[in-house]
Amino acid sequence: MSEKVKIDQDECIGCEACVEICPSVFSFDDDEGKAYVNEAADSNEDCVDEAIASCPAECIHKE
Ligand code: SF4
Question: Is the C-beta atom of 57 inside 6 A of ligand 1?
Answer without folding.
Answer: yes
